[in-house]
């Protein structure tokens, strides 16, 4: 058994891989996970994986937003980009592609050749093209994330590049009388416009889309049509980083 842990900003993903490559996935709220499984040791919060309700693992690898601030006892720590690329290669069988990972609070793009990262860029200082941004916009529109992801026609023009000011702009558009579908489409296009420069910098004929934002159907369609690339979304895209940790722990890639 091999255990992979992705300490995300919004959720913690835990994946267990057996010797035949079969995967068991679990997801926890980040704060609840730390309260339940974390212990303070000196000045650090340390996660003890031995108390998780999973079978004992031969090796454990961890990554994610909190991997440096939060220690994982008995685990090897690897960078997020490495974890997501290993997960994407394992889940898709592809070795040459551009990885697009849109998570809870950051966005990453990596150029992958021969199954390895040759270049990457990331935006971890702004939440404008992340799951947190989508959650804020859906709340402002009083619709679900699923409904938000169903609109792409007649997009309202949203010009703010900041998650906080973007919400203010959205409220202003509501007051002006813009329809909810048009505003939802505008939100989806605004994310695409923010990630497009990173995709243009590291282009490929195939884009593998990971992270929870990959569930947004309209954004998937926009990326595919606007870039001309073949878009591939692996099963359970939000678990790609944790799967990559399992792959690392197993020494497969």
UniProtKB/TrEMBL annotation:
Which cofactor is recorded for it?
Answer: [4Fe-4S] cluster
Single annotated GO MF: iron-sulfur cluster binding
Gene3D superfamilies referenced in this protein's UniProt entry, alphabetically: 3.30.420.40
Q: Its domain of life?
A: Bacteria
Keywords recorded for this protein, A-Z = Iron, Iron-sulfur, Metal-binding
ATPase BadF/BadG/BcrA/BcrD type domain location, by residue? 3-244
The record's annotation in InterPro entries points to: ATPase_BadF, ATPase_NBD, CoA_E_activase_dom, Dehydratase_Activator_Redct
Q: Which residues form a coiled coil?
A: none
Hydrolase is among the record's keywords: no
Keyword Iron-sulfur included in the entry's annotation = yes
- Sorted alphabetically, which Pfam families does this protein's record hold? BcrAD_BadFG (PF01869)
The cross-references to PANTHER family, in alphabetical order and at most eight, read:
ACTIVATOR OF 2-HYDROXYACYL-COA DEHYDRATASE (PTHR32329:SF5), BIFUNCTIONAL PROTEIN [INCLUDES 2-HYDROXYACYL-COA DEHYDRATASE (N-TER) AND ITS ACTIVATOR DOMAIN (C_TERM)-RELATED (PTHR32329)
**Name of the protein described by the UniProt record:** Activator of 2-hydroxyglutaryl-CoA dehydratase
């Amino acid at each position: 058994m091999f255990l992979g842990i992705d300490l995300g900003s919004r959720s913690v993903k835990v994946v267990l891989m057996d010797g035949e490559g079969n995967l068991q996935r679990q997801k926890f709220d980040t704060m609840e996970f730390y309260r339940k499984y974390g212990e303070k040791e000196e000045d650090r919060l340390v996660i003890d994986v031995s108390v998780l309700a999973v079978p004992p693992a031969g090796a454990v690898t961890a990554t994610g937003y909190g991997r440096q601030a939060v220690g994982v006892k008995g685990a090897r720590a690897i960078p997020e980009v490495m974890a997501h690329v290993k997960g994407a290669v394992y889940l898709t069988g592809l070795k040459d592609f551009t990885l697009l990972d849109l998570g809870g609070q950051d966005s990453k793009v990596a150029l992958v050749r021969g199954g390895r990262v040759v270049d990457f860029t990331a935006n971890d200082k702004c939440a404008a093209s992340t799951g947190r941004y989508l959650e804020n916009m859906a709340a402002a529109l009083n619709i679900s994330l699923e409904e938000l992801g169903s609109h792409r026609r007649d997009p309202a023009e949203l010009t703010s590049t900041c998650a906080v000011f973007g919400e203010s702009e959205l409220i202003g558009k509501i007051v002006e009388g813009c329809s909810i579908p048009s505003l939802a489409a505008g939100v989806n296009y605004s994310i695409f416009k923010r990630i497009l420069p990173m995709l243009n910098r590291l282009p490929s004929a195939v884009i593998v889309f990971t992270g929870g934002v990959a569930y947004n159907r309209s954004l998937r369609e926009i990326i595919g049509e606007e870039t001309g690339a073949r878009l591939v979304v692996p099963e359970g895209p939000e678990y790609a980083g944790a799967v990559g940790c399992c792959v690392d722990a197993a020494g497969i890639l």
